[in-house]
Every structure is written in C-alpha cells, then in structure tokens.
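Subgroup meeting minutes
Present: P.N., E.W., G.H.
Scribe: E.W.

1. P.N. recapped why we're keeping a running log of single-chain structure predictions: easier to compare across weeks, and new members can see raw inputs and outputs side by side.
2. G.H. added today's entry (180 aa).
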Amino acid sequence: FRKSFSARLKIDTINIDDFIRVGERDLELSYSSDNGFSFSGSLAEGYFSTETMMTDLSVDLLPVAALRVSGSADPGRLDLDIRDLKFNLGSINFTFPFPIIWFSDNGLVEGDLKLFGTLRDTHLYGNLFTHGLDMEVWWLQKVTIKLSDIHFSLIDNYHYAPRTPVLLIDKNGGPVKTVD
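Output recorded in log:
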C-alpha cells in the first residue's frame, strides 16, 4: 500500500449457529506506509508493522475466542508469542455437517503458545488446558461425556496429554460410568 487510510467497524452481534453469541464490538483500523496497521477498539488493540513485520495485537471475540500475539510475523522467520489464548470448543460445532461431535459451550481451552520457523517449516510449542468440558458423540447418543481438567502440551508440533478420567452420564438417569 502506498497511501494511508482509516476505517471504523461496528458489529452489533455475531451469532454462531444460534448457539454462541458475541456481543457488540467495535474496531478502528488505520494504515500508513510509515507505521503500518494500527488497531483500536473492543474487538482488537495493537499494531502490525509492514516494514519490520513486527506485531503486538490483542483480539477479543469472547465467548468464542481471545488472544494476544506479539513478535515477528515475517513468513521467512516467524517468532510469535501467543499469550492468554482462550478458545471455546463449542464454537466449532457448526462446522460439522452432521453432529458427529458436539461440545457444550463450557468447553473453554486456555493457554500460551510459541510459534517459530518459516511458513514452510513451523514449530509450535506451548501448554493448553481446560477446566473440564462436556461433549456428546453420535455413537453414544444416550450419554453425555464429561472430561475433567485436561492439560495438553505441544512440543515441536506434537500433542501430548496425560490419561484423563472420563465420566459417561446416562441422559435417562441411569448409572454414571467412569472410563479411565
């Protein structure tokens, strides 16, 4: 871009499959060839420099997702810290054409990540956790699955998690079963 511009955006409501609703958000975006992009408002706050490819940006779309990302976004040498990540697993339910898996809206994943490398060879490290979540799966239509607190570790793009006790709760009032 050679010119500068600015824009204002106001979002009244974002509905995700009539299941999760994001309330009113606003965003003011500006660009100049000297300073790059600047964001302010309740949706996002921060900057992205097109000259240095550095960024420091906070995004708030809760109850769906929120994060703060900072560092180098240069595709040839990524070095990004993703902090205060929050993602509601229930917000992806609409992506399934058939509800094979359904997450309740209490399925919040939180944590911090580190992304570095190049776009062709990225490396992801970090820790994510949940404070328990409920889910249903198509194969077990008569039960709700409750997962306790889960801690996930990402080490060079590989996911690790300890064994997690699972409760199977009968929707018709039958006995609760524990799966380990």
